[in-house]
Amino acid sequence: MRTWWIGAAALVSSAQLALAATELRYMCYQDGNECDVAEALLEDFHKANPDIKVTVDTVPYKAILESLPVQLAAGQGPDLARVTDLGGLAKYYLDITPYVNAAYWEENFGATLPWFRSGPGDKGIYGMMTQLTITGAFVNKTLFDQAKRPLPGPEATWDQWAEAARAVAKATGTPFPMAIDRSGHRVGGPAISMGAQIFAADGTPRLVDDGFKAFMTKFVGWMKDGTMARDVWVSQGGAAYQDAAQEFINARVVYYYSGSWQTGRFEKAIGDAFDWEVVGSPCGPAACSGMPGGAALVGFKRTAHPEAVAKVMDFFAAEPVHAQLVERTKNVPAHKGIAAKGLAYPDATPAGRKALQAWAAQVAKVSPVAYAYQGYPLNRVMFNATVTRVTQAIVGELAFDEAMAKLEADIAEAVAQAKK
Amino acid sequence: MRLAAPLHRLLELVDRPMAALQRRIGPQRFAWIFLLPNLVIFAVFTYLPIVLNFVYATTGGLAVLPSERPFVGLENFASLLDCRDYLDPSSCSKDLFWRSLFNTGRFVVLQVGFMILFSLITALVLNREIRGRGFFRGVFFYPVLLSPVVVALIWKWILQREGVLNAWLVAFGGEPVQWLLDAGWSFFWVVFVSIWAHMGFYMLILLAGLQAIPKDVYEAAEMDAASPWRMLTRITLPLLMPTMLVVVVLALIKGVQTFDEIYVLTGGGPGSATMLVVQYIYETGFAAQPRLYGLAAAASLLLAALLMILTLLQLRANRKSYRG
Which residue of B has its CA nearest to A395? Predict the structure, then answer.
């Protein structure tokens, strides 16, 4: 009898030991304080779940882009990660549907859940946008005031903004009227506003159409006539990313088309040096759309603890926790309930708060085509090829039509390779 | 002495089984036992990557693991070599590969040509008894000690829109020039910076070659009243030829492999004006999306073939020069 009791006690204690030993690794990168906030919030999770220990490994963004895919391909890697290439890593995601309240997730994250899925037939729940971003424009309001020009209205077109920015730059001696980040994602929204459909009726990518060409023709023309800061696109080769945030901070650009993630940086770096505002995306004949995007928390199916991973993700998806996460990292909420209620952003400056609220208002203007483009697994191929080929057209290496033809060929080849 | 006894015992301990093994397999085969550790290291770190390079070059798809990649034969090579007109990169299916190849050719010819010319002139000057000779040798060699990334960043600060060079131009009443945004100027500067960074190394080799030329040959020429130009063309250059050959081949191979300085300085831009073939391979295989490992591997094998041809030319030229 005594032996039996000793055996039972040993079994229970070893089971407890095994439970306490559930350790998860979360590979995280941060633009600002995203990993720090996540780590702080996880303290509550650890109190509620003493059997699970989540270790946050904060790594450079390059590690997420370059090392993580290789680790996952080799069957290694963390249990959870903060990723941006949502479609590219889709085959490694853990479906947490069996472990969470799927209706809650669908209700609140329904608009972005398809971004993680492999196709229309896939109904799994694989991740949550912890940072929803929207592309759009910032303007240097002080320069407009100095030039005694009113800001164009919310329905202003790209041409109207270009004309206004040129006039302000001329009146104030600012070197660049406009700048757009060197990124295919950034020019996606403007092209969609001009009528680009991005996909054919059967869902296959068809980037180059009349709408796409309409914006790119304007864009290349603006690069040549000095409306756009040529340096941003031409000073780099290949598909390298380059932003113009520093030029905006230095008040050398009147109108800067980037995205909501720059808000915190501008809040800190510009301070009260000049007034700046978020004006969203200019309109075209089809829409006034930016591109959605951002970073997401995903779990990987290689994990030995799928239920614990789902528990962590469900913790961050819960409304009170998610609201804190978004508010403290100064981001636009992807959670429908939180977006509807609005956030106060108590830590933000008045300019930052106004900007974040302006970004949140832009979400409603995002075209369904933009959502589909962001959710397409090979969208990075399209973004990168756009940057490479449009730059070649800007510098005159290729004629515009030739560049568009090469762009289509690049995408077709990548799609063919992906099917192999 | 204290150490000698245990060491001796240890060697005796090893000696017996080794002697037994040698008796069993014979002295010829026994040599392989000693070569084995080195061979294993070479196999893992040199031969295996070469084999993997061939595996990737002959497979397609986007998977990283070779086992998940379908065999496509020579498709990647065919894709790289698919051109309507080989002199017009735009007519090629992989136009960026051909642009980078043409850029590499142009870069190597200009960089190697001018670098050897300047290295030779500098070596000739610094081989003379001039004041501050040691200082100037140090000055010319100094950039070689710098990391290529540091070199590129220094020059980027000098050449960018509001860089040092434009500040000088403006101070002297000139107009700023977009040194790194114009294709022609960018190419000029990548060649210039590369020469600046590497010239010291080749200068040093040539200087050593010059110092190896016997002094009495010059003394004899002076006694015959030979002019300095005649001494240069009839004594110095012919006797420097073996060293020059080494310098040319080394510079050619290094030139073809150039990547880091240009990648940091211009990123291969504007457009693809300064993209060399190594950058094309890097971008295709590691930076761009999707990562076309097969295409990058095929391009790297073509580059390896090019470098092999250059090396064979060196061996052939060396043989000729030794035969006289």
Answer: B271
